[in-house]
Amino acid sequence: MSNVQYFTAVANVHSKIQAGLNSWGADFPSASDFFLPVLSCRPFYEDPTNTQNYAEFCNPYVDQLASQAQAAQLTDPAAARSLWAQVDRIVTDQAPWIPIVSEGSTTFVSARTGNTRSPPFTGLCLTRCGSVSTTVNWWL
Predict the structure, then answer these.
(1) How far apart are CA 123 and CA 45, in angstroms?
(2) What is the DSSP string of 37-52?
(3) Which element (helix H / strand E) includes 86?
(4) H or E segment at 127?
(5) What is the sign, positive or negative, of the torsion defined by CA atoms of 81, 79, 44, 140?
(6) Which residues of 29-62 are buried (b: 16+ CB within 10 A; e: fewer)?
(7) CA 120, 124, 125, 130 torsion: positive or negative?
(8) Residue 137 belongs to what H/E stretch?
(9) Which of 139, 138, 132, 140 is nearest to 34 (CA)?
(10) What is the band of 10 on the pLDDT scale with cuts at 50, 70, 90?
(11) If you ran DSSP here, which 8-state letter would residue 14 be given?
(12) What pLDDT sits at residue 75?
């Protein structure tokens, strides 16, 4: 089966696929960027024949907490972090995904290399950063 056939099948809830392999990498370090596209009810119901929520996970209470966290993000970051922690705990306890790989890397640079930094999300930055963190999961 080609990648196109596989992802066409798993993205369609009518295929009734119960488990599969997928990876997800957030575009930027934000809980909303990780949770909303792949674990909220919205993408599951927007187009059930083409969803990124392969696990078909939908918990309206968790979606409500995520909405509150997103709303609080700019005005009360501490409250937003607390709400995202609740979302994380509930989703983790319900286990729609089983992480099987979490990428890590080691970077070697010359002693002459300067102005480097290595934030946990993007990895080594020599000039401008633009990287993605990826987790590979089994979804159930």
Answers:
(1) 35
(2) HHHSHHHHHH-TTS-S
(3) helix 77-94
(4) none
(5) positive
(6) eebbebbbbbbbbebbeeeeeebbbbbbbbbeeb
(7) negative
(8) strand 133-139
(9) 132
(10) confident
(11) G
(12) 95
Pair 71, 107: CB distance under 8 Å:
no
- Residue ranges covered by each domain of the chain: 3-139
SS3 4: helix
Per-residue model confidence (pLDDT) at position 59: 95
Please tell me the number of Cα atoms within 13 Å of 115 on its side-chain side. Answer: 4
Specify which residues 119 forms β-bridges with.
none
Distance between CA atoms of residues 51 and 46, nearest Å: 8
Angstrom distance (rounded) from CA 56 to CA 38: 9
Establish how many alpha carbons lie within 13 A of residue 101's alpha carbon, considering only the half-sphere containing its beta carbon. 12
Burial of 100 (0-12, 13-18, 19+ CB in 10 A): exposed
Q: Which two tokens stand for residue 23?
A: 């990876």
**Tokens of residue 39, six digits:** 């674990």
**Element at 6 (helix H, strand E):** helix 3-10
Amino acid at 25: G
Compute the average pLDDT of residues 80-95.
94
Q: How many CA atoms lie within 13 A of 35 on its CB side?
A: 25
